């Protein structure tokens, strides 16, 4: 395994992983101005998000296998080029249709970046090194949804909503240059697959039928769904406590340090007790966070403080779950790293989509609604991880 210059490689792959989160969350604070400027109704905000997420989810199913066939670099650079084109179309849009088309192209390009960040990690690292690298990548990646709303608010305030999309172009160009200089191609020609459509479908079916993939992958995806629900519900909760846009951005930025703390601990814990137990511990912590979040709705004097504690506890649990479950999911499938990464990414976004659709349908206070989703996700993930006839493997 190539591990030279690993800090630079890890920073690069974290940036690739974070690109989709950045593109999703940076537009949230400027969404009202964006919709008003294009003469659309407030209900158009949902399509602006879904046009990105839907294509992003499906695009991963194709980007991963294509990278297994043609190599990581050509698919990654094609994806970044599509992302830049989509950002340019969205930034120059004079109507809602052009904006949605640009956002869809952004989602397609981001799909390649997200899948290949995980596949390249699997190319370069294995075993304990893979778990450590994933911990670093996921902890750095967590900063994107934390700081993106604040960044979007500051850019939008200074230069308008279109500037947030131009900023995404600059980020993608920097990532492309860095990848060429730092990583290059990581999949040797001798290891590339020649999957046709039928073989590709059989490969996905085999992964879905394999508990060594599905059990940790479902735990990972369900946690990601709860995390997206947290991103969506927290601004509403904080506004209820009288917190403004910049304050909300600062809250997200500070809260991600809980993920950092957990991600640093996860590899050591996994080496000592095994990744499956680390995931189970993280799920238990997330369930505790759900109870604390409910308590914030019952406290008149200290509701905000209690919710802040709930958020920190939840994010600490996420910081344990995501790196351990990603390593456990991808570890046994070195020969199918791109395809396994693609399917994991699809499951993550499918879970996020379900969580965001369920969120407004629960007739409870926002914090209690979020707590319900977190608790349900943790319970379902624990069920997915329950011991079966075939034990979970170590992240080899």
TrEMBL record:
Keywords: Cell inner membrane, Cell membrane, Membrane, Transmembrane, Transmembrane helix, Transport
Compartment(s): Cell inner membrane; Cell membrane
Transmembrane as UniProt keyword: yes
Segments passing through the bilayer: 39-63, 75-93, 99-121, 133-155, 161-178, 217-237, 243-266, 278-298, 304-330, 342-362, 368-385
Every Major facilitator superfamily (MFS) profile domain range: 9-390
Chief location category: membrane
Entry annotated with the keyword NAD: no
InterPro entries: Efflux_drug-R_Bcr/CmlA (IPR004812), MFS (IPR011701), MFS_dom (IPR020846), MFS_Efflux_Transporters (IPR050189), MFS_trans_sf (IPR036259), Sugar_transporter_CS (IPR005829)
Signal peptide: none
Bilayer topology annotation: Multi-pass membrane protein
Family: Belongs to the major facilitator superfamily. Bcr/CmlA family.
UniProt protein name: Bcr/CflA family efflux transporter
Organism in which the protein naturally occurs: Lysobacter panacisoli
Source taxonomy: Bacteria, Pseudomonadati, Pseudomonadota, Gammaproteobacteria, Lysobacterales
């Amino acid at each position: 395994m190539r591990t030279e210059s690993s800090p630079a490689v890890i920073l690069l792959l974290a940036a690739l992983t974070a690109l989709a989160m950045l593109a999703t969350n940076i537009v949230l604070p400027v969404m009202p101005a964006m919709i008003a400027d294009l003469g659309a109704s407030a209900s158009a905000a949902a399509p602006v998000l879904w046009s990105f997420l839907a294509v992003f989810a499906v695009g991963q199913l194709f980007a991963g296998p294509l990278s297994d066939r043609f190599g990581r670099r050509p698919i990654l650079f094609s994806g970044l080029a599509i992302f830049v084109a989509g950002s340019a179309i969205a930034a120059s849009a004079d109507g809602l249709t052009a904006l949605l088309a640009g956002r869809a192209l952004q989602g397609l390009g981001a799909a390649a970046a997200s899948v290949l960040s995980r596949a390249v990690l699997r190319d370069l690292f294995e075993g304990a090194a893979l778990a450590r690298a994933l911990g670093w990548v996921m902890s750095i990646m967590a900063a994107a949804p934390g700081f993106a709303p604040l960044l979007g608010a500051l850019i939008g305030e200074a230069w308008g909503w279109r500037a947030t999309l131009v900023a995404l172009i600059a980020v993608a160009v920097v990532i492309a240059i860095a990848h060429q200089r730092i990583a290059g191609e990581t999949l040797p020609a001798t290891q590339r697959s020649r999957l046709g459509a039928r073989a590709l479908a059989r490969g996905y079916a085999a992964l879905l039928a394999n508990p060594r993939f599905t059990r940790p992958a479902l735990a990972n995806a369900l946690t990601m769904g709860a995390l997206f629900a947290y991103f969506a519900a927290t601004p509403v909760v904080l506004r209820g406590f009288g917190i403004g846009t910049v304050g909300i951005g600062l809250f997200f930025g500070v809260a991600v340090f809980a993920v950092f703390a957990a991600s640093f601990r996860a590899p050591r814990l996994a080496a000592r007790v095994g990744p499956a137990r680390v995931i189970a511990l993280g799920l238990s912590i997330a369930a505790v966070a759900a109870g604390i979040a409910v308590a914030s709705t019952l406290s008149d004097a200290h509701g905000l403080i209690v919710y802040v504690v709930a958020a920190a506890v939840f994010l600490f649990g996420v910081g344990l779950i995501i790196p351990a479950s990603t390593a456990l999911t991808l570890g046994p499938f070195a020969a199918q790293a791109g395809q396994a990464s693609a399917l994991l990414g699809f499951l993550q976004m499918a879970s996020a989509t379900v969580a965001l659709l369920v969120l407004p349908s629960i007739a409870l206070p926002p914090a209690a609604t979020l707590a319900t989703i977190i608790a349900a996700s943790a319970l379902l993930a624990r069920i997915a991880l329950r011991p079966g006839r075939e034990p979970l493997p170590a992240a080899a």
